[in-house]
Design brief:
Structural class: mainly alpha
Number of domains: 1
CATH topology: Amino acid/polyamine transporter I
CATH architecture: Up-down Bundle
Radius of gyration: 22 Å
Number of helices: 20
CATH class: Mainly Alpha
Largest sheet: none
Order of helices and strands: HHHHHHHHHHHHHHHHHHHH
Distance between the termini: 24 Å
Number of strands: 0
Oligomer: single chain
């Protein structure tokens, strides 16, 4: 296999120039990135919001349409993984580290400082309902629909339409074969740049959480050096896992990851104030369901709040989406489209909802008991400290802090190794159903770049750096997603006349 030099070289050069610029002139780098970030939000926030909700609607339509019965790869295709392994990888390679970081911290922001325009008083019952229903909005069906739709279109292009292992292949239903092949190098380069920004944001959240965990035992300043040491060990581990391939390191870590999630849910359920938060679930879910569309479109909500939260999340998911589509799309071989949607959208969303209800609910419960002390800690020491403070309220806190720390580490590695594997495959010629892995040297290069970018963004700008990286990465990916939406819409309109029904057609 040979390197796709243009696809690999352009994003690497751009990212290295970014790294050098930030090291040479940190203040100038922050000024430029903040200005670019604000321009994106001011001019395209509405487009992020619209694309997100339209994508969810299209996935639902695909599920109920005749196209839903099509088997990815054709009737003779054999599944790459069994359903249990498929679910664990789909769940743990997408937003796993995110739910560990934000589940307990995000609702405190919404509860204590709800947005203007809704008439919600701080720390009221309405603010409580708004907080958890917003958590559901940001972490369940919409983000997973973004991944699912893009991954599905890639799977159809790669397996059913026999297109190359390139992101441009998912555009084939709307652009045709010649145009999609011609645009593929540009689309692939742009997608690689977007993902590094998205992964850097996720790794930044992981760095902050791990730093908060270490601080529980060894109180120390959150310096560039300390964050750099954590980033080094994270990078080494996920490069090793990516180099071992899907059927070894990635599958193993995903299985460990989901077992850890289940253990943590069980411990929190049995030893936390579960009976006190359970009666509120109905009102949380009802508000989520009835306000899904207006809240996702940021209607009637303060624009700056929407940009900082909802649009930030849509940009973050989009930044990960193109490369995640390559990885998740591969896993769907041998299953029909409806099954693909269940395992990439429905089941992970329900799992995430349970997680957010439990950890978000406990966060608000303890904040009320302690009369706002948890929120004050959030303001003074950052979101990475909140989950550890909650754990301290439950039995065997020291051991469970260690357990949580290790789970955060594994969660990021699980997400990063799968995407590093996909990035490397995209940078390499000759990837096919029979040859699925790129050379380990390419995986090492991408892993190092991701680690460096994450370290710089979070050490220079903290949580603001995480959000800026997400927005900057999601912007170019937004336009690819619009093409995905157009391709899906055309496929739905054509129905049984669609080229997808002509299995293996070119």
């Amino acid at each position: 296999m040979n390197l796709r030099k243009a696809v690999f070289g352009v994003p690497v050069i751009l990212l290295m120039l970014t790294i050098f610029y930030s090291l040479a002139d940190g203040n100038g780098f922050l000024t430029v990135t903040k200005a670019a970030n604000q321009w994106i939000l001011n001019h395209f926030g509405w487009l992020f919001a619209t694309a997100a909700i339209v994508g969810l609607i299209l996935v639902i339509l695909l599920y109920i349409s005749p196209i839903g019965g099509i088997i990815i790869g054709g009737k003779e295709a054999k599944p790459l993984l069994n359903k249990l392994h498929w679910f664990s990888i789909s769940l743990c390679t997408t937003i796993a580290v995110g739910i560990l970081f934000w589940a307990s911290a995000e609702p405190l922001y919404h509860f204590n400082t709800p947005p203007d325009g809704l008439g919600i008083d701080s720390r009221s019952e309405s603010a409580k309902i708004f907080s958890i229903s917003t958590l559901f909005l940001h972490w369940t069906f919409i983000p997973y629909s973004i991944y699912t739709l893009t991954a599905l279109m890639f799977a159809i292009g790669f397996y059913n339409l026999k297109q190359p292992f390139q992101i441009g292949s998912l555009l084939m239903p709307i652009l045709g074969e010649k145009r999609s092949l011609k645009l593929s190098p540009y689309v692939d380069s742009l997608s690689l740049f977007s993902l590094v920004a998205g992964m850097s944001a996720s790794m930044g959240a992981g760095l902050l959480t791990l730093s908060g965990g270490i601080n529980q035992f060894f109180p120390t300043a959150k310096t560039q050096t300390n964050l750099g040491i954590i980033a080094f060990f994270l990078t080494i581990t996920f490069i090793w896992s990516a180099a071992s391939g899907l059927q070894k390191g990635i599958k193993l870590l995903s299985n460990i990851n989901i077992i850890g999630f289940i253990i943590l849910i069980g411990w929190f359920t049995f030893f936390g104030p579960f009976t006190e938060i359970l009666p509120h679930f109905g009102s949380y879910f009802s508000d989520f369901a009835t306000t899904l569309i207006p809240k996702s479109l940021a209607l009637g909500i303060d624009k700056s709040w929407a940009n900082s939260w909802t649009i930030f999340y849509w940009a973050n998911w989009l930044a990960w989406t193109p490369i995640s589509a390559l990885f998740l799309g591969r896993l769907g071989r041998g299953y029909n489209i409806r099954t693909f949607i269940r395992f990439n959208l429905l089941f992970p969303s329900l799992f995430s909802m349970i997680w957010m209800f439990l950890f978000g609910g406990y966060s608000l419960h303890f904040d009320q008991i302690f009369d706002g002390e948890l929120y004050q800690l959030l303001v003074k020491k950052g979101p990475e400290t909140i989950i550890f403070e909650i754990i301290k309220q439950l039995p065997l806190a020291t051991w469970w802090i260690i357990f949580y720390f290790l789970l955060v580490f594994i969660s990021f590695v699980t997400a990063a190794d799968s995407n590093t594997s996909a990035m490397s495959a995209l940078s390499t010629k000759g990837i096919s159903e029979n040859e699925e892995e790129a050379p380990y040297q390419i995986k090492i290069i991408w892993g190092v770049i991701v680690g460096l970018t994450a370290w710089i963004m979070v050490s220079q700008a903290g949580i603001d750096g995480v959000k800026m990286a997400s927005n900057l990465g999601g912007f170019p990916a937004l336009f690819l997603y619009l093409f995905v939406i157009a391709s899906t819409f055309r496929m739905l309109i054509q129905g049984k006349k669609s080229i997808v029904f002509k299995e293996g057609a070119k």
